[in-house]
Structure formats: C-alpha cells, structure tokens
Amino acid sequence: MNNYYIDTHVHLNDDTLYSHLEEVLSDARRNNVHLFFVVGWDMDSSKKALELSHKYDDVYAIIGFHPCNIRGYSDYEYNWLEEHAKDERVVAVGEIGFDFHWDDTTKEEQEEAFIRQIEIAKRIHKPISIHSRDADQATFDIIKKYDAAMIGGVLHCYSGSSEMAKEYIKLNFIFGIDGPITFKNNRRGIDVVEKIDLKYLITETDSPYLTPHPYRGQENGPKYIPLIVDKIAEIKNMSSEEVMKQVIDNVKRVFGV
Fold first, then answer.
1. pLDDT tens-digit series, residues 196-215
2. Which letter does DSSP use for residue 5 in this model?
3. Which of 55, 77, 195, 239 has the most crowded CB, counting CB atoms within 10 A?
4. What average pLDDT does range 11-34 have in this prediction?
C-alpha cells in the first residue's frame, strides 16, 4: 500500500459508532482510510479502545482521562492507566488537558489530572494527545512547566491561533486538523493550515462529532478523512497525495506507527 488516509482521533468506542462498528470501518477502508487511533475519555472508554486495538490490525489506542471526566478518580484509575498505557497497541496518553467550556470539573481538578497524566506519559515514554477548549494559555503553561516537550504529542482539534501554534511547535507538539477546517467561517483554522508547515499537521475526525461540510448535522465517521485532506491540500496549494504522504510521515515521527 502506498499512500493512504489516517484518522488519528476517532471515537469508535462511542456508542454511536460502536453500535454499527463494522459498517463504520468498512466505509472508511473503502475510502482508503487504513489507520485509526481510537481515543478514550474515561476508564471505560479507554478499556474499549484497548480492546478494539487488539481486535483490528489497523486500529491503535490512545488511552486517558478527559478533563470533564476525572471527578472522583483516585490512585486506582491512574495506576490502571500507567500499567495499560505500556501496551504496545497504545500509541499515546489522552485525551487529556483542560476544558473551561463546561463546568463538570473545577480548574484545580483538571490541572491535577492533566499533570498526573503528563507524568505518566513521561515515565512510559509515550506522547500525549491534548484536549484544550477555551484554555489556550493554561494548556501551554502546563506543557512548558512540566516539560512535556520531552515526549511531545498533538494538540487535538487545534483551535488556537497560528502565533500560539508556533510556540507549541517549539515544545515538540503538532496539530490535529478536523472537519471544521471545511467550514467557510473558520478563518482561524484556515490561517493555521496556511501558516504552519505541513510537517506539523495530522488528520483526524473526532467522530462521531465535528462532521465536515457538506455533511454537517449528520453522523461523522473516519470515511470523511479525504474531505479534510482535500481541504488542507486546497489551502496549501498542493496535491492531496502530497498531504497524505506527509501525514503518514508525521504519524510515524510522533507516534512511532
């Protein structure tokens, strides 16, 4: 197989997609999507991601605890995470970080969980997948303070500025580009893709969420990765084949897959 598409952030472990998983995977593979990173957000979803990564050769897992899902978590959950993140089918710890849009958890709770999971990732020498919503500066500050540059990783569904992106690059991070890049009013996202070198961008759907144009309002799936690649190629004034090839190289460099 030469060039193929990659979905580096997909929730096949979400009930919406899991309920018809074979169809979701079949549709994606028909569209030449041949690598999937299934991402956990709590302990149960991380267990399911791990299970899927052992069932399918083209599926890998990213396991961890989302900032909105860490209330009540104790040493038990974090010990479980550290042990299972060592699994060879796990490519990163995530999705971890900050989410100040919702108020399910406090900033202090989120910060403690974020730091604990960065430290786990550093001990096992794996990158991190970061969720950052309404928290650009806070996320950057924690990454810098706790030396996450030594493991690097991805800012999933990056929604920050191109100026901030350049600072993250200095800390060994790259950026996940999703369906919203296809939205006409997404000026900030387009600016990031225009100004940031392609070697720092990877493709993801975050499905079943963030469905790209022209399918907004419908269920998202990894089958739509080609739409994201085509849009990046259009913005960059290059071919989709060139984008696909660079994304493959980026994924190998950051995740070792």
1. 999 999 999 999 999 999 99
2. E
3. 77
4. 98
State pTM to two decimals.
0.96
Helix axes 187-195, 162-170, angle to 10 degrees: 40
Give the whole-angstrom CA distance, residue 39 versus residue 104: 20
57, burial (CB in 10 Å: exposed 0-12, middle 13-18, buried 19+): exposed
Nearest one of 231, 222, 216 to 204, comparing CA atoms: 222
Q: Which helix (H) or strand (E) holds 200?
A: none
CA dist., res. 77 & res. 57, Å (int): 27
Which residues fall within 8 angstroms of residue 128, CB to CB, at 6 or more apart?
64, 92, 93, 94, 96, 117, 118, 121, 148, 151, 152, 153, 154
Distance, in Å, from the CA atom of 63 to the CA atom of 11, rounded to the nearest integer, reads 11
Cβ atoms within 10 Å, residue 15: 10
Please check the confidence at residue 1 and state whether its pLDDT lies above 80: no
SS3 sequence of 30-93:
HCCEEEEEEECCCHHHHHHHHHHHHHCCCEEEEECCCHHHCCCCCHHHHHHHHHHCCCCCEEEE
| DSSP letter string, 129-193 | EEEEES-HHHHHHHHHHTTGGGT-EEETT--S-HHHHHHHHHTTEEEEE-GGGGSTT-HHHHHHH
Instruction: Write out pLDDT tens, residues 104-117.
Output: 899 999 999 999 99
The conformation of residue 102, written as its DSSP 8-state character, comes to S
